[in-house]
Design a protein that fits this description.
This protein is α/β, with parallel strands linked by helices. It folds into 2 domains: about 10-30 and about 80-210 and about 260-285, Rossmann fold (3-Layer(aba) Sandwich), CATH 3.40.50; about 35-80, no CATH class. It is built from 9 helices and 11 strands. The strands form 3 sheets. Strands 6-5-4-7-8-11 form a 6-stranded mixed beta sheet, with helices on both faces. Strands 1-3-2 form a 3-stranded antiparallel beta sheet. The chain has a two-stranded antiparallel ribbon with strand order 9-10. α3 packs across α9 (about 275-285).
Length: about 290
């Protein structure tokens, strides 16, 4: 079992606060604003304009009338939040080489940033069971979100996982990030369902250096983390070559599949700094310059 990551530590929260400030300075655009028909339901004052017959008297600024003897009404703007969809793989293979800890921090950072920008977040895990779909909105839900993430453990073995039942409830035109090692093709074959909802999708494929270039020799009992099946293998130089060929074939298949559906892919190494990866993902999704 993976040790629980302390997502409430002061150091981690300081890193998240720094990240929010960096992203705010580099925002590609501000949240879209629309004119409000009723000022009392608005979030932000926009401007004054001259009164026209039919305007609500309650929106007249009487202080302006006392000074200028003319009627002006207040025009407001409503902030329309962006929507984010974050999906996190908790299958058993994610427990190896600290992979889950890295993507756990990336998911926490992305959702933390979204909530502090006033955006809405949908979160689900794969494989999924009933009740494992979450919605968050507002900075007040930050700690609840972090507690939920910290409680997750990558130990699920579900070889016959189907497309999540919650997909029909996800928001169209949102920004989606899927974090997984994608070793089971079933996991990346659901990505087109996100594109069908006109989402901008980034698929983050997590890998460890030990997986890219294993340096093992001799006879080993190998266990498939996804299915639990075991096999005795002689890890010779020939095996190493065959492993590299299969790994490269898998990579080409995954990247070609994502290109077909216009999904951005990024490799996440366990040796990388997660902060830099969050900034890169934010840029690819068009959030920052």
């Amino acid at each position: 079992m993976v040790a629980s990551l302390n997502l409430h530590s002061s150091h981690f929260l300081q890193q998240l606060s720094w990240l929010v400030e960096q992203i705010k300075r580099r925002l590609m655009d501000r949240p879209k604003t629309i004119h409000s028909s009723q000022g009392q339901t608005s979030l932000e004052f926009l401007e004054y304009r001259g009164y026209v017959p039919g305007d609500d008297f309650g929106r007249i600024d009487w202080h302006v009338w006392q000074r200028w003897q003319e009627f002006f009404v207040k025009e407001y703007a409503v902030v329309v939040p962006r929507h984010w969809t974050i999906c996190l793989d908790i299958s058993a293979s994610m427990s190896l080489y600290h992979k889950f800890e890295i993507v756990q921090q990336i998911a926490a950072a992305l959702m933390y940033v979204a909530l502090h920008l006033g955006d809405k977040v949908s979160f689900f895990i794969m494989p999924m069971s009933q009740g494992q779909f979450f919605r968050y909105y507002g900075k007040s839900q930050t700690m609840t979100m972090l507690s939920m993430l910290a409680s997750l453990q990558p130990n699920v073995r579900t070889p016959n996982w189907a497309v999540p039942a919650y997909l029909p409830y996800l928001t169209q035109h949102s920004k989606a990030v899927v974090l997984s090692d994608f070793y089971d093709p079933v996991y990346f074959e659901f990505l087109p369902w996100l594109r069908k909802k006109n989402m901008a999708v980034v698929a983050g494929k997590i890998m460890a250096e030990e997986e890219k270039s294993p340096n093992w020799r001799g006879t080993w009992i190998l266990e498939d983390a996804e299915t639990g099946a075991t096999q005795i293998m002689d890890l010779s130089q020939k095996w190493q070559q065959q492993y590299q060929q299969r790994l490269q074939q898998h990579q080409r298949h995954f990247e070609g599949f994502c290109r077909q559906y216009h999904i951005r892919t990024t490799e996440i190494l366990t040796s990388e700094t997660w902060l830099n990866k969050v900034i890169s993902i934010s840029k690819w999704l068009g959030l920052i310059r």
